[in-house]
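Lab notebook, design round three. We kept the backbone fixed and only want residue identities now. Task for the bench partner: fill in a sequence for the structure below.
Input structure tokens:
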């Protein structure tokens, strides 16, 4: 795509929220391909990002962006890379918002290790202080726990195979998007990249676990996976998450499920108090998200604490176990998660992560 073509698209997508026209798949693919090349004019790029935020992207556009990213930046997407770097197991891909959390504890490391110890492997991935929140993400909690996060792609895959829990760093597996961090910060608002980077799926898993604020967004994500020509996801479970992350929100919470071949997603509500989480969002707030989340992770896995954080970890682990097929229901997954925490197996997984290099 020539540099002027990105600017030319502005007449289509940038005429305002009501009059803007949607791009087709090929236009969206070509636009992001050009952006990832590093040749986009900074002014045109900023305008393009803001215009797409105004008009809201369709699933077809998001699929074009996603596939351009997986073809041109995500190194594990090509057949050659998959053969080298995808784990031998089929983990649950946890696609949390890369811009992280700033107020509540990040419980996904603990929940993932519980899931892994129960027999359902998990993959997480994140960047480093991604715009716009620039909050605490998976890599920051893992670093606080003494786990190496600056891993070669093959090492990330080996971590999944040997521990059942693996971390992929954005700068390693998605360098084209990582290179855009400064420009994303300068534009001052969230862009479509905040959405598609959660769907990168660096391990080419067939199960995706994610979160949403509103059900309409969950439907858009599912439709994006349907429209994608590179996605390997065959099953997706999404729920309303704390701060947009993949930690379930306390209280009445919507859940959406989808399987390949289904025309529609299935959505329902759960009351987390019925699953042991009988408290409010404020009860999960912490002062230092990275450091406090690491302390909570270790104390829950060791059995030292049996409180609201332990209950929240158990339910979040149950979702991962259920999503990956390790339990026939969320209730069964919760029982498995609690048993796994009590027998100390998940703490062994943390020890293995610390030794992994």
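Proposed sequence:
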């Amino acid at each position: 795509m020539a540099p002027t073509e990105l600017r030319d698209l502005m007449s289509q997508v940038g005429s305002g929220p009501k009059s803007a026209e949607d791009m087709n798949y090929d236009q969206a693919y070509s636009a992001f391909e050009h952006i990832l090349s590093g040749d986009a004019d900074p002014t045109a790029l900023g305008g393009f990002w803001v215009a797409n935020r105004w008009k809201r992207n369709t699933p077809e556009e998001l699929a074009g962006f996603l596939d351009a990213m997986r073809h041109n930046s995500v190194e594990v997407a090509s057949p050659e890379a998959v053969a080298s770097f995808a784990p031998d197991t089929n983990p649950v891909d946890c696609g949390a918002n890369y811009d992280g959390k700033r107020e509540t504890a990040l419980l996904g490391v603990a929940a993932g290790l519980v899931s892994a110890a129960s027999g359902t492997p998990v993959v997480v991935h994140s960047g480093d202080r991604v715009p716009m929140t620039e909050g605490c993400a998976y890599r920051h909690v893992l670093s606080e726990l003494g786990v190496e996060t600056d891993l070669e792609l093959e090492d990330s895959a080996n971590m999944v195979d040997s521990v059942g829990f693996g971390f992929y760093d954005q700068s390693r597996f998605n360098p084209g998007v990582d290179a855009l961090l400064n420009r994303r910060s300068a534009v001052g608002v969230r862009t479509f990249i905040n959405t598609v980077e959660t769907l990168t799926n660096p391990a080419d898993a067939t199960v995706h676990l994610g979160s949403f604020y509103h059900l309409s967004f969950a439907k858009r994500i599912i439709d994006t996976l349907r429209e994608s020509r590179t996605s390997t996801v065959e099953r997706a479970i999404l729920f309303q998450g704390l701060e947009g992350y993949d930690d379930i929100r306390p209280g009445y919470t919507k859940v959406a499920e989808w399987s390949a071949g289904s025309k529609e997603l299935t959505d329902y509500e759960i009351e987390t108090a019925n699953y042991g989480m009988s408290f409010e969002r404020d009860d999960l707030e912490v002062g230092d998200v990275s450091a406090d989340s690491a302390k909570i992770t270790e104390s829950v896995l060791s059995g030292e604490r049996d409180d609201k954080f332990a209950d929240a970890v158990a339910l979040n682990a149950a979702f991962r176990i259920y999503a990956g097929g390790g339990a026939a229901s969320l209730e069964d997954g919760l029982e498995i998660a609690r048993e796994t925490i009590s027998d100390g197996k998940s703490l062994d997984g943390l020890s293995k992560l610390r030794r992994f290099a």
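Keep this in mind before ordering anything: The chain has a mean pLDDT of 94.
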